Give the backbone structure.
Amino acid sequence: MTTAASRSAPAASAHNITPPYQQLVFHQDGPVATITLNRPHARNALSLQLSDELIHVLETVRDSTTIKVLVIAGAGGTFCAGDDITEMPQWGNPNEVMRRVTGYQHMADTLAALDKLTVARVDGYAVGGGLEITMACDFVVAAASAKWGMPEVDVGITPGWGGTTRMARLIGRRLTKEINLLGALHPASRAAELTLWNRVVSDEELDAEVERLVTVLLSKNQQAARQLKFIIDNGAEADLKTAQAFEKLSAGLTGAVNSAWQVPDADQGQGVTGFRDKSALWSQRRDLARDFWTDGPISSQ
């Protein structure tokens, strides 16, 4: 007998995918990679297949050492209409739904944490999961005619991977409630006014504006860009003193990267080579430390 559980889809995962991709297009041109969501007949809604492919390709981008900038776009004049609601009955029972959402959160977290600079190129609709993708990107450039929102409330569901969490961190709690509880579709200009998106241009200028931004990003010291992204993203989630510690460590790393790396009372890597070669320095340190206070807090002498 076939049960609902046996019909449910597996949790979202890159392990479900073996390229070539069926529902997205991945292209790399030197240091720039482009992911194009490619279900134009469904406004690029995130089907089970497309979601798994997106996880897979983002992990591929993550592991690349040649990609410096990633652009995410949608085919057919629209960015992404969110999760494919028609497939939701396949998600399974509440535990299986949570497992699937864990995969989606991994997808968004992987995108947000890339040590590359990321740009969402938005036209048409960016709603639900589509809007959540833009919130995980570093930059968002949109066409003036684009529309966005979180209409899940009218389907009787709630966002799973950024629609309440990342949004509240970007525009605050009150506006996040407005966007989610009302479920309206907003013009691109309002996203820019709320600082949810960076830039809105005429539809005709969208590609040129994205290209201009990519050119500027590629001109930067890429190590400095990686460090800036890291300390901004992690500092925003920390208390002030911890965030300042990130800045301080980044400043030190910047000095090292810019050739001022030798600190007089550091050992210039001799600890590592000493372990490998079992040098006199290694032996001295270990002989001093090996049995030090191993008898506990009370001296046995």
